[in-house]
Design brief:
The chain is mainly alpha-helical and 98 residues long. It has helices at 17-31, 34-50, 54-62, 64-72, 77-82, 84-93. α2 packs across α4 (64-72) and α3 (54-62) packs across α4 (64-72).
Length: 98
């Protein structure tokens, strides 16, 4: 299994958003978890709105290709920060031993 849980007992909340994204994506790929990827795609417009990019969020709802582009950057910047709860929830739910 890939290293998807924090090292040294660190809490998920303490990890940078990019690290949470990388770990969640690694775990989803390992598990072939299309459901998580779909959840992420559905969460991106709300995350964009939460960081004040309402026009971008509305555009994404109606333009799937734009949403797929956002998906490729879901581990970067403010968007990654807004998606932290999704990453933490996924990693915690599928941590080793659960």
């Amino acid at each position: 299994m890939s290293d998807v849980t924090p090292d040294g007992g660190a809490e998920l909340d303490e990890l940078p958003s990019k690290e949470l994204y990388d770990r969640a994506m690694s775990l989803a790929k390992e598990r072939r978890d299309v459901g998580f990827l779909w959840d992420l795609l559905r969460a991106i417009p709300a995350a964009a709105a939460a960081i004040g990019e309402v026009d971008r969020a509305e555009f994404d709802l109606f333009h799937g290709l734009s949403l797929l582009e956002e998906f490729t950057h879901a581990g970067e910047g403010e968007l990654a920060d807004a998606l932290r709860p999704l990453y933490i929830e996924y990693l915690a739910a599928h941590a080793k031993g659960t």
